[in-house]
């Protein structure tokens, strides 16, 4: 019968056998799968592992600190954080097309990771232990979806910022290959990972970059980060996290409407709330949130976030609407 302690012991033994004394690198995204797979490898080979976390500036409030402080405290992993905010924002300047944004974010992620990798390879060469392995948080459903093939880095690239370069010469370490998401969460909890990471709802790799309809700029990201933090805080306080699959908060950056706030007329942006209920994200329905919770979120966002004077609710199922607006 299934027991997270047994799975951990089994995977740790397997990873040790696979890796030997070589070095391993891992890309942390802030999501559940990369967090748990990295923690397992850390448990198995300790300092032979280096985790790389790319801050692309499209993260939500507190996410970087969560990884840098809480995750590191819980795992003891050796972490390298790449601050690539300026690079990403420069590359995204003037871009409004959603697929173009995704391409740019994916490309810049690979560049940032490759730079970190070159530095680590140089360091590893200096002490004689080459980097041979790359950790991937591949789950059982991903394996089935891609036809069950094993081997070197053939990672589905379209849907994950974790989509890494295909010419990487690393062998993959995939300790979650036989597991489903709820099992991965159970293992993460058993390993003592922070609940904010283990219980996290889905969040797209391109992050807030695809939740600003219009050009992505620093100011707009700051504004959206605040609105998103308020919505998340209120949904959690209302005990609704289990009921909602996820709740994208979207900034309509190129839309303005008239409002009246404080002493006078304003001309600000709308924020869209997109709470959805779903089993697998293939189809979804809009979540009937309690009116009082919606009212609190709306009041707080319009009061606390400068330049936002309207909050609207998306009441579209999927299909026809996708969960994300871009
Ligand atoms: P849609 O918008 O297609 O989203 O209904 C379905 C699920 O996928 C997530 N999503 C993404 N995840 N990179 C990701 O890693 C992406 O580019 C991306 N686009 C959408 C979305 O949050 C939802 O859970």
TrEMBL record:
Keywords recorded for this protein, A-Z: ATP-binding, Glutamine amidotransferase, GMP biosynthesis, Ligase, Nucleotide-binding, Purine biosynthesis
Enzyme class: ligase
Catalytic activity, as annotated: XMP + L-glutamine + ATP + H2O = GMP + L-glutamate + AMP + diphosphate + 2 H(+)
UniProt domain GMPS ATP-PPase: residue ranges: 2-200
Residues where ATP binds: 29-35
EC number: 6.3.5.2
Coiled coil ranges: none
Pathway assigned in UniProt: Purine metabolism; GMP biosynthesis; GMP from XMP (L-Gln route): step 1/1
Biological role: Catalyzes the synthesis of GMP from XMP.
Description of how the protein assembles with itself and partners: Homodimer.
Name recorded for this polypeptide: GMP synthase [glutamine-hydrolyzing]
Organism for this UniProt entry: Agromyces allii
Gene this chain is encoded by: guaA
Portion of the parent chain present: 201 to 526 of 526
């Amino acid at each position: 019968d299934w027991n997270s302690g047994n799975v951990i012991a089994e995977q740790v033994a397997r990873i040790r056998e696979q890796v030997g004394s070589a070095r391993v690198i891992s890309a942390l995204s802030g999501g559940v799968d990369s967090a748990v797979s990295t923690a397992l490898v850390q448990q198995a080979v300790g300092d032979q592992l280096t985790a790389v976390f790319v801050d692309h500036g499209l993260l939500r409030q507190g996410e970087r600190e969560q990884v840098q402080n809480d995750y590191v405290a819980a795992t003891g992993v050796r972490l390298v954080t790449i601050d690539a905010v300026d690079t990403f924002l420069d590359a995204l300047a003037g871009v409004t097309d959603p697929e173009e944004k995704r391409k740019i974010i994916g490309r810049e992620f690979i560049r940032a990771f490759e730079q970190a990798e070159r530095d680590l390879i140089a360091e590893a060469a200096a002490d004689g232990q080459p980097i041979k392995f790359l950790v991937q948080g591949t789950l059982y459903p991903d394996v089935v979806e891609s036809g069950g093939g094993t081997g070197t880095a053939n990672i589905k690239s379209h849907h994950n910022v974790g989509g890494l370069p295909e010419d990487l010469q690393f062998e993959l370490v995939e300790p979650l290959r036989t597991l489903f998401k709820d099992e991965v969460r159970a293992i993460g909890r058993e390993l003592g990972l922070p609940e904010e990471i283990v219980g996290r709802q889905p969040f797209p790799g391109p992050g807030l970059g695809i939740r600003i309809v219009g050009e992505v700029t620093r100011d707009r990201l700051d504004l959206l980060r605040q609105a998103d933090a308020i919505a998340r805080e209120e949904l959690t306080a209302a005990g609704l996290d289990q009921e909602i699959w996820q709740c994208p908060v979207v900034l309509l950056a190129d839309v303005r409407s008239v409002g009246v706030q404080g002493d006078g007329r304003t001309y600000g942006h709308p924020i869209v709330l997109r709470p959805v209920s779903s089993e697998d994200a293939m189809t979804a329905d809009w979540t009937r949130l309690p009116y009082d919770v919606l009212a609190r979120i709306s009041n707080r966002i319009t009061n606390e976030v400068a330049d936002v004077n309207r909050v609207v609710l998306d009441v579209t199922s999927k299909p026809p609407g996708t969960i994300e607006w871009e």
